[in-house]
Amino acid sequence: MKTVSLFIPCLVDLFLPDIGEATVTLLRKLGIDTIYHDGQTCCGQPAFHAGRRLETVQLAKRFVEIFETDEAIVCPSGTCVLMVKKHYPDLFADQPEWLERAKNLADRVYELSQFIVDVLGIEDVGASFEGKVAYHESCQLSRGLGVVEQPKKLIQATAGAELVPLQNASVCCGFGGHFSFNYPEISEALVKEKADHFMSSEADVLVLSEPGCYLNINGYLSRHHPGSKVMHIANFLTGSG
Amino acid sequence: MEIKTEQFVETAKRELKNPNSRIFLNLLPVVLSSLRELAMETFPDPDAAQEMGGIIRGEALARLPELLETFEKNASAAGAKIYWAKDSQAANEYILNLVLENQAGYITKGKSMVTEEMGLNELMIKNGIEVWETDLGEFIAQLLARPPFHIVGPAVNVPVDQIRDVFMEKIGLDKPTTDPVELGYAARRFLRDKFHEMKIGVTGVNFAVAETGTIINVENEGNIRFNKSSPKIQVSVMTIEKVIPDMKDAMHLLRLLCRNCTGQHIGSYVTMDTGPKKEDEIDGPEELHIIILDNGRSQIFQDTQTREVLRCIRCGGCLNICPVYGMIGGYPYGWAYSGPMGQLLAPLLLGLNRCHDHIWACTSCQACKVNCPAGIDHPGLLLYLRNKEVEGDSSLKAVPPAWTESLSYKVFSRIASNPMLWRLTSKLMRPVINRGAKDGKLKKGPGPLADWLKGRDFPEMPEKTFHERWSELKRS
C-alpha cells in the first residue's frame, strides 16, 4: 500500500492543523504517499451526538461519495473513525443501498496508530524523544475501536522515550464534544483530575491520539500548569508541535 | 420520594463541591473497579461470562410475555398470590389495602428501588402507616430524609458523625459514638423490635424464575431475609422485566450481579422463595403476595430500541464506572435511579420533558457499555433518546429544542455540505473567534465558549486551516 487518503477531522482542519501536517510527515517518512480530497469538511459526528440524525445523514452521504473509491483512509482521530466505521452503518439501517456503501467503506478506514502498527506492521517509526512519556487512552479510540496497545507500542519503540504509568489512564478526560460546553463545571472537574494524574506521573509529556482530548487537556494544563506538554501522537512521533 | 430530576444542573454544581460525597466517589475508580476486576477474573473466561449475561437477558426479554405467564402459573401453583399492577398507584393501593385489612400499623421494607419509584413510603405515611427501611444504608437515608446516593449503597456518602447525630436524635442511641460496630448495633436493636412485631414485610425482587415460580433476592445484611421469613404477610414487588427462564440462568446472573455490584463472588444472603410457608415448614410467611408492576414498561418494551434498557439487573456497575457519576454522585439525578442506568430509565419512565439533562450529561465514553453484564449500550441508547427529543417525539413526552438550535444544525449541515461555503465560513469565523486572543490562546470568548474558558484555554484559529496548508504540503 503506497498511497492513503487523508481523512482530516474538522477540528484539526480549523483549529489544530499541526496534527494534520504531522500525520502527513509521519506517513511520508514511512514511505506512504498521501492524497487529500479537498471537498471534505466534517463527517457529521458533532451533529450525530446532538441527536441530529437527518443532518448527519446528509453529511454521511457526502463522506461516502468522496471517500468510497479509496483503498485506505487514515485519520488522526478515533472518534471520527468510529463515526464512519460504526455509526454510519447504524444511520443507514433503513437505506439498503447506502448501508452497503457505508459498510464497504467502513473496512478501509483506519485511525493513524492502528494503520501504522496493524496494517503497515511498523512499531519503530524512527522517532526519538528524551524523557518520560504518559499516554492517555481516549474513550472512542480505546473502548470504541479497541485501539489501546498500538499507540503504546509506537511510544515504546521511540528512542530515548520511557513510557510511564498514568493513573486512571482510561478514564474519560471530560471532553465529550458538546458535553464540555453544556456541562462545563463537570467537564472541568474531570479534566482537572486527568491533569492531576498527569502531574503526579512526573512524565515530561502527555501523549494522546485524539484531537478532542488534546483540546481539552491541553487547554486545562495551559491555564493551570503552564509549561507542561501535551502532544498528539503524530506530533510526538515526528518531533513537531 | 420527591422527584427532582429537573434540578440536575444546580444539584450537580453543588455536589461537585461536597467533600463528603467526594470521599466515597474518589474510591470508586480505584477500589471498587479493582475489586470488580479481581472478582470477574475468577471466571475461567471473564469476557465469555459477561457476554453470557447479555445473552440471558436478551433471551428473557425476547420471551418476556411467555415467561411472565409461566411465572404466574408456577408461582400461583406454589401458593403465591399474583397481582398485576398497571402503575404505581395500583401497586401502592394494593399494599395499603393489605395493611389496612390486617391492621398492621406499620410495614418494614428491604431496600428496593422499585418501591422508591412507586413512592410507596409517601403513600403509607400519608395514610398514617409507619414505614421502616431495614437496609442499614436505606435506614440512614430514611432517618436523614435523603434520597438514595447510590442504588446499592444509598447512604454510602454520609459521614459517620452525621449518622451518630441522627441515631441519637431518632432511634435512641444513648452515647455519642462513631464506632461503626456500635452504630450497627444501635440500628439492629431498633430494627429487631420492628421485625419482632411485624405483620407485613415488603421487598423487591432480583430475579423471578419462570420455570419454578421462585423469587430470588440477594443482599449482605440479612434484613431482606427477615422481611421475607418473619412476617405473616410477605409482599414482593417486581417489575415485569425481572423474569428469567430458569434456575441455571438465575445462578449465572447472580454470579455476575454480585461481581459487578460490590466485587463479591456472592452476596452474604441469597434467598429463594417458592410460594409461602408450606404445612410441614416451621417458618416463612403465611401469605406471599407478588406484585408484578408495569408502570410504563410495556410501552418501553414495544420499541425494540428502548426495550434494551429493560435488560438492566440493577448491579450498579455502570454507576461505579461512570466518570460523570464519579464527579457528582447520585443526588443530581433526582430520583431512585442514578448514573447511566438512571439516565435511561428515568426519561423513559417519567418522560423526556422531565429528564432533559439525563440524556445529555454523558461524554459517550462507553465505560458503562463495556462493563455492563446485561449487554446494554447506554451511550448508544442516549443518542437514540437525544434524537427522539430533537424530533419532539410525543410518546416520550419530548419537548423539542428551541427553533434557533434546530436552525443552527441545519445551517451547519448546509455549510458542511458545500466546501466553498465551509472555507468561506471558516475565514469569516476567524476574526470573530480570535478577538481577544493572546499568545495564540483564547481566554475569554463568545457564546458557548464563555463557560468553557472560565477554567481552560482554547487555541485560537490559526492563520491557515489544514486545507489551506495542503497546497504547500503536497508540493513539499
Write up what this structure looks like.
- The complex is a heterodimer of chains A (241) and B (476).
- With 241 residues, chain A is an alpha/beta fold.
- Chain A folds into 2 domains: 3-117, Rossmann fold (3-Layer(aba) Sandwich); 123-238, Rossmann fold (3-Layer(aba) Sandwich), CATH 3.40.50.
- Helix content of chain A is 53%, strand content 14%.
- Chain A has 13 helices and 8 strands.
- Chain A has helices spanning 10-14, 17-29, 45-49, 53-67, 78-91, 96-106, 112-119, 139-144, 149-156, 178-182, 184-201, 211-224, 233-238; strands at residues 3-6, 33-35, 73-75, 109-111, 128-135, 159-163, 205-208, 230-232.
- In chain A, strands 2-1-3-4 form a 4-stranded parallel β-sheet, with helices on both faces.
- In chain A, helix 11 (184-201) crosses helix 12.
- Chain A starts with a strand and ends with a helix.
- With 476 residues, chain B is of the alpha/beta class.
- Among the domains of chain B are: 53-298, Rossmann fold; 403-473, no CATH class.
- In chain B, 52% of the residues lie in helices and 11% in strands.
- Chain B has helices at residues 8-16, 19-40, 46-62, 64-77, 88-101, 113-118, 120-126, 136-143, 160-170, 180-197, 223-229, 247-262, 297-302, 317-321, 323-328, 339-350, 356-360, 367-371, 378-391, 403-416, 419-434, 449-455, 466-473; strands at 81-85, 106-109, 130-133, 200-203, 207-209, 214-219, 233-239, 243-244, 269-273, 287-293, 441-442, 458-459.
- In chain B, the strands form 3 sheets. Chain B has a 6-stranded parallel β-sheet, sandwiched between helices.
- Chain B starts with 7 loop residues before the first helix and ends with a helix.
- The model of chain B has no long low-confidence stretch (mean pLDDT 94).
